[in-house]
Amino acid sequence: MTATATTPAHRDPELLGQTVVVIGGSSGIGLATARRARAEGADVILTGLHAESTQRAATDVGAVSFAAFDATGRAELARFFSGLPKGIDHVMVTAGAPEYGRLLDTTFDDLRHALSDRLLLAIETARNAVDTLRPDGSMVLISAEAGEPSVGSGCVATVAAALPVLTASLALELAPLRVNLIGAGFVDTPLSASLLGSDIEKRRDQLRSTLPIGRVVEPDDVAALAIHLMSNTALTGATYQIDGGQPLVRA
Q1: Is 9 helix (H, G, I), strand (E, B) or coil?
Q2: Is 27 part of a structural domain of the chain?
Q3: Which helix (H) or strand (E) holds 140?
Q4: In Å, what is the CA distance from 65 to each residue of 14, 60, 128, 193?
Q5: Domain hosting residue 192, numbered range
Q6: pLDDT reported for residue 180
Q7: Is residue 11 part of a domain?
Q8: CB 176: neighbour CB atoms within 10 A?
């Protein structure tokens, strides 16, 4: 019998000719998503908090433009969107950092910041993006994975529990524009390393030995899911967990 050679099926880039805006794209999940969007044929516009790191990321991925500002500032966010061309296809929001610590030991201002900024950022992004996005476009939000609260993670757990409801509400209000949420467990990002400090290697080793996938979830894993949510036009109003199977091995 003679073996027959097979040629891999050709696949068109999933975002060819589209434009993706990444709010918080200078590192980690946002930067990985920007890279993957470019690989899938999209033009990318990046934002970040610091000018130097945002410019470096924009150069790295070949972004068409970038802007450095605090996305939680309403006026700055509105100014950014007012300067964008009409017909943006997708907006991803990754900006913001989780607030850890005992609730009763956290100052009022820090609590207000932690509990409201991620939620308000999603709403304000939607408010500003709705006239810029194409009707068949999408928004992708990122949060920590919703789970059992623990001492020190009350703010994070509260926001994670609220965002799925907010996502579904936005999906209804903005339809046919699609809105989806990624709830991420531990992802090996620069932010994770900064939060854990010297304990980061211990955490990586623990996850490698316990997760069903046998490795740590990387930013590229989340980026792949984000691109799928942008390109699959049947998905809206839902939360997609990505954690390497961590809930399966929790005691």
Answers
A1: coil
A2: yes
A3: strand 133-144
A4: 21, 12, 18, 28
A5: 19-245
A6: 98
A7: no
A8: 11
Task: Indicate the number of domains in the chain.
Answer: 1
Nearest 5 degrees, angle CA 23-CA 25-CA 29? 110
Residue 26: strand, helix, or coil? coil
Closest CA to 93 of 136, 47, 54, 57: 47
| pLDDT interval class at 12 (50, 70, 90) | confident
Shortest CA distance to 218 belongs to which of 3, 19, 33, 13?
33
How do residues 49-97 score in pLDDT, each as one tens digit? 999 999 999 999 999 999 999 998 999 999 999 999 999 999 999 977 6
Q: How far apart are CA 86 and CA 160, in angstroms?
A: 31
Q: What CATH number is attached to the domain comprising 134?
A: 3.40.50.720
Is 12 contained in some domain?
no
Task: Assess contact for 67 and 119: CB atoms under 8 A.
Answer: no
Q: Is 225 helix (H, G, I), strand (E, B) or coil?
A: helix
Q: Is the pLDDT of residue 168 over 60?
A: yes
Q: Is the pLDDT of residue 10 over 90?
A: no
Q: What is the pLDDT of residues 105-136, one digit of tens each?
A: 888 888 888 777 889 999 999 999 999 999 99
> What six digits make up the tokens of 6?
């097979």
pLDDT range class, residue 184, cuts 50, 70, 90: very high
Rounded Cα distance between 134 and 191, Å, is 32
Beta bridge partners of 207: none
Q: Compute the distance between CA of residue 16 and CA of residue 223 in angstroms, rounded to an integer.
A: 16
Q: Is residue 7 part of a domain?
A: no
